[in-house]
Design goal:
The complex is a heterodimer of chains A (about 280) and B (about 140).
Chain A (H helix, E strand, L loop, with lengths): L1 E6 L20 E5 L5 E4 L5 H11 L3 E5 L23 E6 L7 H8 L15 E6 L4 E4 L2 E7 L7 E7 L2 E6 L21 H4 L4 E5 L4 H6 L8 H11 L3 E5 L7 H15 L6 E3 L5 E3 L1
Parallel strand pairs in A: 3-4, 4-5, 5-6, 10-11, 11-12, 12-13
Antiparallel strand pairs in A: 1-2, 1-14, 2-3, 7-8, 8-9, 9-10
Helix pairs in contact in A: 5-6
Chain B lengths: L14 H11 L4 E6 L4 E4 L1 H7 L3 H4 L4 H7 L16 H7 L4 E8 L5 E13 L3 E10 L2
Antiparallel strand pairs in B: 1-2, 1-5, 3-4, 4-5
Classes of the chains: A alpha/beta (about 280), B alpha+beta (about 140).
Chain lengths: ~280, ~140
């Protein structure tokens, strides 16, 4: 399994001199399975460039796994070139809500006045799949999803190929519902998804001081990430969903804080940066 | 594509139960939380006080036990069966229910309480348990 970060910024795209190193595009991670199948985690602005590449490669079957439908995770869909190709079969997975299907929820964004076109106008053949607490297989790879703590219907994903596990939990605030240090793990949101993951990509938007002022916003701090990574026995943790107000220098200070708390080898704590690749 | 078994992941409580427990732990009113089988998964400090039993001692109680150990009775003193308790109705019929009961805590103190039982559904129609919120009028 080959993983590439295409966008790791949270909330809003944040290009500029202060975000050059880690990038300003919003949430998107490319996953290439050993079979060659392409899976994409989230459709933030980072998906645009990936779409161009997939068209150049002639990829015609794509699985897009959405964690939720907040704009920073969906806003790239309209500029994802494969969606405008009649040769492409696009499977979109994501959480429904109690009152609306996944397709209906996506259509809220993908329609005027927020977007000039409507979903029925796209050329690709799209199939929508509810991914709220499901488990399924693609080319022998097991993909699991579970609802996790964040405002609105949100899921995390666990992708297992052979004995290697990728966990993706962006936009996640498990500390809102549990003391992460002492609560039995079955009562910690998302824990089963991240347990024993070789690569854990997890929300790390805040410092502990910032978190204290943003309780309930749906995100985690460096303290939370260090605790979760340790309790889950993660191989490596990738700090993800960078705050748009954080400069590269601030992010590096946050990484140092995670390392100080987790006390592991330096290469086991990674700041997500656009273009980073991981082979599992 | 197929839908395999749970696979390599450890047991995980449904998010609605996790959030309900967190809610209960911060709530001043007594709150009693059971899973879809009726097994006690949490009750808070106010409930501990009313039931005369600490959660650490009541954790994991099956419905057959908690529905009788507190000797629930109606205002006329008649015993109330599990299926007629508000939380029993919430569990079995999966609809909200309200009632006035007398209970006797394991500390031997009898208390009159008002109880509302509410079924808990996650993700549209996934029944995950029920909650009883109660207070002394």
């Amino acid at each position: 399994m080959h993983v590439r970060i295409r966008g790791c910024r949270g909330t809003i795209a944040s290009p500029g001199a202060d975000t050059m190193r880690y990038g300003g595009n919003t949430s998107c991670v490319e996953v290439r399975l050993s079979s060659g199948r392409v899976a994409i985690l989230d459709a933030g602005t980072g998906i645009r460039e990936l779409g161009v590449q997939l068209m150049d490669e002639g990829v015609t079957r794509i699985d897009l796994l959405l964690t939720h439908l907040h704009v920073d995770h969906l806003e790239g869909l309209g500029t994802f070139a494969p969606i405008w190709s009649p040769d492409v079969e696009l499977h979109i997975w994501g959480p429904a809500s109690p009152l609306a299907s996944l397709a209906e929820r996506i259509a809220t964004y993908f329609s005027p006045p927020l977007f000039p076109a409507v979903l029925p106008e796209v050329a690709a053949r799209i199939e929508f799949h509810d991914a709220s607490g499901h488990e399924w297989e693609v080319d022998g790879v097991r993909i699991s999803s579970d609802a996790i703590v964040h405002p609105g219907a949100t899921v995390g994903y666990r992708i297992r190929e052979g004995d290697r596990v990728l966990a993706f939990l962006t936009d996640h605030e498990p500390a809102l519902a549990a003391d992460l240090r002492t609560t039995p793990t079955e009562w910690i949101s998302g824990f089963a998804l991240m347990d024993g993951a070789d690569l854990l990509i997890h929300d790390c938007q805040y410092t502990p001081e910032e978190y204290a002022e943003r309780l309930g916003f749906g995100h985690s701090s460096t303290e939370h990430v260090a605790t979760l990574a340790e309790r889950a026995g993660a191989g490596r943790v990738v700090m993800y969903h960078h705050d748009p107000m954080h400069s590269d220098a601030q992010l590096e200070a946050m990484r140092a804080d995670v390392l100080r708390r987790w006390e592991v080898e330096e290469d086991r704590v990674v700041l997500a940066a656009e273009g980073d690749t991981f082979d599992l | 594509m197929s839908q395999p078994e749970r696979g390599d992941r450890p047991e995980q409580r449904n998010l609605v139960l996790i959030l309900a427990r967190a809610f209960a732990s911060n709530l001043a009113a007594a709150m009693f939380l059971v899973d879809a089988d009726g097994t006690v998964v949490y009750y808070n400090e106010a409930a501990e006080q009313a039931l005369g039993r600490r959660f650490i001692e009541g954790h994991g109680m099956p419905a057959s036990e908690w529905s009788t150990v507190f000797a629930p009775s109606d205002p006329d003193g008649e015993p109330v069966a599990f299926e007629d308790l508000p939380i029993g109705i919430a569990l079995l019929q999966r609809v909200p229910a309200h009632g006035v009961l007398s209970i006797t805590g394991t500390d031997g103190v009898a208390r009159e309480i008002e109880v509302t039982g509410i079924p808990l559904f996650a993700h549209v129609d996934d029944f995950v348990g029920a909650v009883a919120i109660f207070w002394e009028p």
